[in-house]
Amino acid sequence: MNVLKRLNDPQLGREMIRKVRERAARLTERLGRAVTLMEVCGTHTMAVSGTGLRGLLSGLVELRSGPGCPVCVTPARDIEQIIAFARLSGVTVATFGDMVRVPGAQSSLERERAGGARVQIVYSPADALQLARDNPRWEVIFIGVGFETTAPLAAVSIKQAAELGLTNFSIYSVHKLVPPVMGALLGAGDLKVDGFILPGHVCAVTGSRAFAFIGEEYGIPAVVAGFTPVDILDALYVLLDLIQAGDHRVVNGYRWVVRDDGNLKAQRAITDCFYTGDAAWRGFGVVEGSGLFIRDQYAQYDATQKFAGAGPASVAGPGLATERVGKSTTTGGFGTGDFLEPRGCRCGELLRGLITPPDCALFGGKCTPASPAGPCMVSSEGACAAYYRYVTNQPRLPGVVNANSGAAGSGAGCRKVEL
Fold this sequence. Notes:
The chain has 2 domains: 3-65 and 189-252, HypD, alpha/beta domain 1 (Rossmann fold, 3-Layer(aba) Sandwich), CATH 3.40.50; 72-177 and 263-338, 3-Layer(aba) Sandwich (Rossmann fold). It is globular. By secondary structure, it is α/β, with parallel strands linked by helices. The longest helix is centred in the N-terminal third of the chain and has 22 residues, at 10-31. Helix content is 36%, strand content 19%. Helix 2 runs parallel beside helix 13 (229-245), helix 3 packs parallel to helix 17 (383-390) and helix 9 (151-164) packs across helix 14. A hairpin with a 6-residue loop joins strand 12 (322-329) and strand 13. This is Hydrogenase expression/formation protein HypD. Keywords: Iron, Metal-binding. InterPro entries: Hyd_form_HypD (IPR002780), HypD_1 (IPR042243), HypD_2_sf (IPR042244).
């Protein structure tokens, strides 16, 4: 059986669910509590919710979400800067779709577009580059949101713009690096987890070795995982085994995609165009060495330099109830400012794995996908969006009794899904 077919085999999935539950039950009995794991990646968050794994393991494994949603971790000050760019005359803001509805203090890209601003949804930096080529009279600013996975594509677009001699293309880089924020997360000392599921696509670039410090320095095991249910179940099985044995290694469970040293060509593309510096994260403040900023040799393609006077006038606006959640230097070189969140929004705590979405008083009431208070309800990789969409109507894997059957959101009427 080839790898792809095996990863989508329902029978294998059902068997793995049984084995994971058995192993988790033994470990839970030993610990006297449920095993607490963090899925760092937002794509994993959607997968474990959408396939029903969260409900199937309820009472045995508690899965917490982490800082692996790039839209979610973009701080308020950067959101205000992006909105300020959209208000510039003669500018088109090119962005991934998830950013359009992220609320700022008074506005969003969606509202700016409704008011006449040029906001174009694109699917890659190459699309933004082509937009600039097709519209030479417009300045095109691409919003570079993402982790190590998308940064190489942004680097390639910068090099191509230079080769083409384009003068109307630039990038606002809020790209971030995952290993440093994992260090900050663990270094804070308030996160209590037994193991991590690491993002396969990030590790495909960085290599699994980039996360070895999690086990070596903090004594917590981790497994690099792919994104099918079988991938995730396999990672859970290995991770539970590591915890049971007291083994603190980082194991590569996505070997057909991820190498120990990663993708060297992609890494070179990043270092050719970007340098690392301190960057702000929603919920974390500034994380040392976690941001990617455009090198001076490509300064003409750096929106922070090209439009240096276009900073946001004010982070907080009249009529918006906000609260301060930390003060630090912001990304983008636009000075310092408080990171303001809507009052009651707990996205920052959620991204640090300290709470689950239902722990936030706004969840499902004042914060819904139709009217989001924070980015975790907006992004397709956001934990709040995943919980709102799936956990209140928890699907089940076929042929497996839901561990939560009869509990709220996971009993009768639940949709069944195939692996």
